[in-house]
Amino acid sequence: MSAGSQGTPANTGRLAARVGGHVHGLSRCVGVGVGTCLAALLAIFPAGCETPPSEAAAPAESRRLKVGDLAAPQTQPLPSQVSLQVIVFEAPADKAAAVGEMFDVLRADPIFFADRATLEANDIRVRFGTQRDWPDLAKKLDEADAKQAYLHTLIHFDDRGLDLADLPLWEAGALNYIRADGSTASVELEPGRLAWSTVARPVEPLRGVADVVFRYVHRRQKDIAAARLARQDRVQERVFDFSVLSTKMSRGDFILMGPTAYHDADRQGLLDPAFMVPRSSGGVLRLYMVLCTKVGL
């Protein structure tokens, strides 16, 4: 579906009132330092392959054959899964220049963009990193006074999308974005939700590699309600084509997505709600680190 139609730029001064500032579904962890976050990441990927003490010291009695061991194996194989840890950082709006510099230590080459130029015309950057990049990124986060604010885990078992950022759109109206050529496009949206959604699946026959797709979507409130009444897991959504990007990820790889400038309320448009908190609510920039923690059974 088309991302939007050409039109006269709409007044975005009321965007903060129309789009909620809370990132739905994320656990709040205010003020956690980058060093603490990096230590937590290193804990996710411990070095070595030592046998856990509890297992090594298990008494012989616990290793005897039990009745349950004789049960028939499950005939239904467990589905493969891809687990993504979403870590949201917040930095002061006046640190926008320092925020932009952190993307310089990461890479764009591993990412396939549907329209990278349009994303960057709207001051949004997306870059790829590995475990080797964590120290350099942590230094840049410290320079930007960024704090860990939210944590969220996405576990993909099938091709349904899961949201890394989900915000309510309270009122109908037009939201703008900048095209790659510098012109302004306007999209008319009904009340509902705006979300950055992910779809992830293991790459066969490669072991430990996942194909991960990111996309920005709008879901109308009436479609959300209809799916709920019908007890359906999937909700009809509009995908903004220029936002789609994909990459292959293994355990320890990550994507960093965020802004390189702060837009005040009268300049905020279609892509800004997930990345910018109005000055009336603190004036911060949000960055999303999406870390691959598991691929497979």
Please name the defining characteristics of this protein:
single chain; 297 residues; alpha+beta; 6-stranded antiparallel β-sheet; 16 strands
Structure, explained:
With 297 residues, this protein is an alpha+beta fold. It has one domain (5-43, 79-296). It has helices at 15-18, 34-44, 53-56, 96-101, 116-121, 134-143, 221-229, and strands at 5-6, 27-32, 81-92, 111-113, 124-129, 147-156, 162-169, 173-178, 184-189, 192-202, 210-220, 238-239, 245-249, 254-259, 276-277, 284-296. The strands form three sheets. Strands 2, 3, 5, 6, 14, 15 and 16 form a seven-stranded antiparallel sheet that branches. The longest helix is centred in the first third of the chain and has 11 residues, at 34-44.
Task: Summarize it.
The chain has helices at residues 15-18, 34-44, 53-56, 96-101, 116-121, 134-143, 221-229; strands at residues 5-6, 27-32, 81-92, 111-113, 124-129, 147-156, 162-169, 173-178, 184-189, 192-202, 210-220, 238-239, 245-249, 254-259, 276-277, 284-296.
Cα gyration radius (Å): 21 Å
Mean of all residue-level pLDDT scores: 82
Largest sheet: 7 strands, antiparallel
Amount of helix? 10-25%
Strand content: 35-45%
Distance between the termini: 34 Å
User: What is the number of domains?
Assistant: 1
Count the strands?
Answer: 16
Oligomer: single chain
Uncertain spans: 4-13, 46-62
How many helical elements? 7
Give the helix/strand layout.
Elements: E1 5-6, H1 15-18, E2 27-32, H2 34-44, H3 53-56, E3 81-92, H4 96-101, E4 111-113, H5 116-121, E5 124-129, H6 134-143, E6 147-156, E7 162-169, E8 173-178, E9 184-189, E10 192-202, E11 210-220, H7 221-229, E12 238-239, E13 245-249, E14 254-259, E15 276-277, E16 284-296
